[in-house]
Design brief:
0% strand; 2 domains
Length: 106
């Protein structure tokens, strides 16, 4: 099962992680086997992938994709605004330096 392993960084909201931990605890009690959070997440991913035609799954994927797009868009605007401020500041400095040179005659 774990012959081909790949590491993945997964960022989850705290309440989702808490629900997965609860599921791990219930599974440990029911199965009388140690069930880690990693086992639960792996099982949830596998079971979710089996439901690739499910409307609820697709709606969830769409909602998350749109949320990521909004976040990136806002971050881009902030970064763009910051870059624009830096460019504006450097243009102002160049103009000031240029006008100072003209006054000095250099």
């Amino acid at each position: 099962m774990l012959e081909n392993k790949t590491k993945v960084l997964l960022i989850l909201p705290q309440h989702i992680l808490d629900r997965a931990r609860v599921l791990a605890g219930k599974a440990t009690t029911t199965l009388k086997l140690p069930v880690s959070l990693q086992i639960v997440l792996r099982a949830l991913i596998e079971e979710g992938l089996k439901r690739d035609g499910d409307r609820n799954l697709l709606a969830n994927v769409e909602g998350q994709a749109q949320a990521v797009r909004r976040i990136r868009s806002l971050a881009g605007r902030r970064g763009g605004a910051e870059a624009e401020r830096r460019n504006l500041g450097s243009r102002v400095l160049r103009r000031l330096n240029g006008s100072e040179r003209q006054r000095r005659g250099t």
